[in-house]
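This is your field. Please look over both lines of this record.
***
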Amino acid sequence: MIDVATLVNSGAEYKDYPKGAMVFEALTYPQFYYQIASGQVKMNNYSESGKEFIQNIFSEGQSFGEPPLFIDEPYPANAVALTATTLLQISKEQFFVMLYQHPEVSIAVNRSLARRLFFKAIMAPEISSKEPEKKLLALLDYIKNHSDRPRDSEPVLIPMTRQQLGDLTGLRVETVIRTVKQLEREGKLQIINRKIYR
């Protein structure tokens, strides 16, 4: 999202996290801006019964955890490395200096935050739906429409496991598996080598 050279020249450093490592915990205060150089990070929290709910999954080139940086509030969720991950991280103080010195970076950050708000707005009515098909199709369409592939090209790979789709929609993995098979029968998605395409 932010040009790597701009980040490094502003004081960002690379840091490696093994799979499963906690980048930050919910209710702690932000100290850094994070951008993924390689790997994947999930933001999650847990219900009182211990069920995991994934807020979002972020991949190479994406940033995560910015909103609390701007409002001096603690993180509402954890950030955990889904794979071995390398992050570019810059201190909060250096991050704000960079924003003032590079207005184009500030616009890019605003665009990223707006996209996430848009995602939440798209998903909110579907998450409250009792129909798993609607929940899954809303998520799959969002992923497809925000991939690097043109919308009218061949089907787009959905780079998530059934468990991750369930965690993002609040569905049990068994429900996701059953619903995906049903949607395939209806011609609304394809399964190729066990991978979902929409």
